[in-house]
Design a protein that fits this description.
heterodimer; A: 140 residues; mainly alpha; 5 helices; elongated; B: 495 residues; 20 helices; 2% strand; globular
């Protein structure tokens, strides 16, 4: 779509959408939202970019290879965090018993592994949305 | 105490492999193959160790993240789930080795990595469903399993595959929703999602809510019946299993439908318990559907011209046997049905793999073109013959033993009418399996003289088939190998 208004608005609005997505991901353990919803917001910002600037431009910004590596690393990150629980003497995905830093409830840095897991989920969901969208319009 | 984590390691290694495969450089298929074989060997070793540990120290439950079972997710590792986990991993190991060569013939090279990703997610969800002790967790794994099975059918990208997988997707979504509704009703009655906790709650209060529980079980069994292809709900199976690539059809027919039956066991005997299930009269209805399926599946199979379609209809009949054993709700019936799960899994994968080899080598799927093929492909057709004889129930092959156990169970439950149905179904099996064997070995081929020659199939395809055939014969002569394990697994359901 070659429209100056859409392109300008997109260029203005995409950073705000992304910041909001990152905010939702990072505050997953203390406020409504979390990895999935934040990741969806983050992914939709790139979908908006692809819609207004076209696939070639978007693939230059975030190539297919990068999104698939991000997807894989999201899951692997989750698995590694979970295995850390076993390594530290508990069970898979153990949080407090394994001695992770619990902090003050309601603070940003608290709740042990949950923010780390939310981060992994957020990356995974965002990159999956981008990959799915790009794959679908590539095949069209 | 490290051994208690083994089931988790199995699940995680399968999941990690599934996500690592797509980022390996797609030109180096050798690396992907090495990774696949390594992961499956690790999973196989860990499954064997899990089974040993369970026999030595007894079953145990594994709570994720040390949350208690009322709010957390729990795996149960007992004689049943460890044994069936080993069965799933071992059989799929053989099928995946076969697929490494056969899949080059079936799909485009750029789809290989996608196919193996799907296969590993499929294995992950099957093992998850086998090990889980949580109803909602079971539902999640069931959804993953449905979607991946649909994708490994449609990966061939032909019109009939799309048709089959669309039908599969629609019916299975209805099945999933039905299961979810049933789980919601059970949750309404008991306020729990953990199977053991529901059992404890429901055994006290079931007299107050008989209708609720009956409706819940009805929904769950209908959903699982769609997924496991019990007779009137089987309409998706023949298309799906016959059009899919051969390794997919072997996986789907010999393992995937069985996993839904494991869930049915769990729901009936672990969540509700024998008293409630028999009190509500549920097993009797299961036997009716099973008996109709045993006859009708075989009758449909007689009319088929396509070899894989015939095998798919035969699965419908064999699933009837399994549900008949389940519906008796006795110890003998349950062990016969578990034994038949193992033996049907082995026989049906041998049949599908040998049928796939015929398609690979001769490019022929029509049953009428198979005259004299026993002289061209002696090893493949021997495997096919052994497994076909097993399906008919000729002594010395595992299918005979499972029919024998089932017959004893039927007589023990004092329902001799089902013995007649088992016999009729066996005769019908003979009607459609024997002509293939006879025409393969005794008829003259149209194009060449019947001179015995060893076929030049790749070794990777021959060896798994031969191993499965040897296992089928070994179980036929020494059924105690499996039966001792089955007899240890049954008490986890019935006391």
């Amino acid at each position: 779509m070659d429209d100056i208004i859409v392109k300008t608005i997109t260029r203005l609005i995409v950073p705000f959408i992304q910041v909001y997505g990152i905010f939702v991901i990072l505050h997953g353990h203390i406020s409504p939202g979390g990895g999935f919803s934040g990741g969806a917001v983050l992914g939709s910002s790139m979908i908006l970019f692809t819609l207004s600037f076209g696939l070639p431009m978007a693939s230059r910004k975030i190539p297919h290879k990068v999104t698939s590596i991000l997807e894989t690393s999201g899951i692997l990150w989750y698995i590694i965090i979970g295995l850390a629980g076993i390594y530290l003497g508990g069970k898979f995905l153990v949080n407090k018993e394994a001695g992770f830093f619990m902090g003050q409830a309601g603070e940003l840095i608290s709740a042990g592994i949950i923010p780390l897991l939310t981060l992994g989920i957020g990356i995974k969901v965002a990159s999956t949305m981008i990959t799915l969208f790009h794959t679908i319009i590539e095949e069209d | 105490m490290g051994s208690q984590h083994f089931p988790v390691y199995i699940l995680l290694s399968l999941l990690a492999t599934a996500v690592i495969i797509p980022i390996i450089n797609s030109e180096s298929f050798g690396k992907v193959k090495a990774l696949i074989i390594a992961t499956l060997s690790i999973a196989l070793g860990l499954s064997v160790r899990t089974l040993q540990e369970v026999y030595k120290n007894g079953g145990y439950t594994y709570n994720f993240g040390n949350w208690n079972e009322k709010i957390g997710v729990q795996l149960v590792v007992d004689e049943f789930s460890a044994f069936m986990g080993l069965f799933i991993v071992a059989l799929s190991f053989l099928i995946v080795i076969y697929s490494l060569k056969d899949i080059e013939h079936e799909i485009k090279p750029q789809q290989f990595t996608g196919f193996y990703t799907l296969v590993f997610i499929l294995l992950f969800s099957m093992l998850g469903m086998t090990y889980t002790n949580d109803l909602f967790n079971m539902y999640v794994f069931m959804e993953i399993l449905s979607i991946t099975s649909c994708s490994i059918i449609s990966i061939k990208r032909k019109k009939e595959n799309y048709m089959a997988s669309l039908r599969y997707l629609i019916l299975n979504t209805m099945g999933s929703l039905s299961v979810l509704l049933g789980i919601a009703l059970l949750y309404m009655v008991s306020g729990q999602l953990n199977m053991t906790q529901i059992y404890l709650t429901i055994s006290k209060i079931w007299n107050l809510y008989p209708t609720n529980i009956l409706v819940a079980v009805g929904f769950i069994l209908t959903g699982l019946g769609i997924k496991a292809a019990v007779f009137p709900l089987h309409v998706w199976l023949p298309d799906a299993h016959s059009t899919a690539p051969t390794p997919s059809s072997a996986l789907l027919s010999s393992i995937v439908v069985k996993v839904y039956i494991f869930s049915a066991y769990k729901i009936l005997f672990k969540v509700l318990g024998q008293t409630i299930v028999v009190g509500l009269g549920i097993p009797t209805y299961i036997t009716y559907f099973a008996a109709i399926g045993m006859i009708m599946g075989s009758i449909f199979a007689i009319g088929q011209k396509d070899i894989k379609r015939m095998l798919a209809y035969s699965s419908v009949a064999q699933i009837g046997y399994i549900f008949l054993g389940l519906g008796l709700a006795t110890v003998e019936g349950l062990s016969a049905s578990l034994f038949h799960i193992i033996s049907h899994g082995l026989m049906k994968s041998a049949l599908f793999l040998s049928a796939g080899s015929i398609i690979y080598y001769k490019e022929k799927r029509d049953l009428r073109d198979l005259d004299g093929i026993g002289y061209e492909m002696p090893i493949t057709m021997t495997v096919f013959t052994i497994a076909a004889f097993g399906m008919i129930g000729i002594p010395g092959i595992s299918g005979f033993m499972s029919k024998l156990y089932l017959s004893f169970a039927v007589l023990g439950a004092n329902k001799p009418i089902y013995l007649a149905i088992i016999l009729i179904s066996s005769f019908l099996n003979a009607v459609y399996y024997l002509p293939i064997v006879i025409s393969a070995f005794l008829k003259e081929s149209k194009n060449r003289r019947n001179i015995m020659a060893i076929e030049r199939l790749p070794k990777l395809m021959l060896v798994p088939m031969v191993i499965i055939a040897v296992a089928v014969v070994a179980i036929g002569f020494y059924p105690q190998i499996i039966m001792t394990l089955v007899e240890k697994a049954v008490p986890t359901f019935l006391l």
